[in-house]
Amino acid sequence: MKFLVDNQLPPSLAGWLCDRGHDAVHAYDAGLARLDDRTLWSHAVADGRIIVSKDEDFLYLANQPDAMGRLLWVRLGNCRNTQLLAAFARAFERVEAAFDAGESVVELS
Q1: pLDDT at residue 61, rounded to an integer
Q2: Secondary structure of residue 105 in the 3-state scheme
């Protein structure tokens, strides 16, 4: 799977995803940090990437009738990076299975 990690999540999350065999980039590292949400969404769709974000604006974009993108919507409150990565580790098998089954929005909480 290909992921684009949004700005409000740490770059270490993209590294964690890469360590598990996925193609993942952080918006900042990809030079996309200054894009508005719609443009970032369009970029992810064009590149076949799943947006990983806490931003509810992406949920709105993902639920449009003609939406082509996918979203991993992170519903965790503020937490340390170690806690965030631990939550991903606990839930990621389910997340992968949901995207493999064709889900366009998967919630991680």
Answers
A1: 96
A2: strand
**pLDDT tens digit sequence for 2-49:** 999 999 999 999 999 999 999 999 999 999 999 999 999 999 999 999
CA distance 6 to 40: 9
Residue 77 has pLDDT above 90, yes or no: no
Calpha distance 89→87 (Å, rounded): 5
Alpha carbon distance 76, 107 (integer Å): 10
Asked whether 32 and 43 are in contact (CB, 8 A), the reply is yes
Residue 91's nearest CA partner among 80, 99, 68 is 99
Give me the phi and psi of 78, to 5 degrees please.
Answer: -60, 135
Separation CA 7–CA 33 (nearest Å):
6
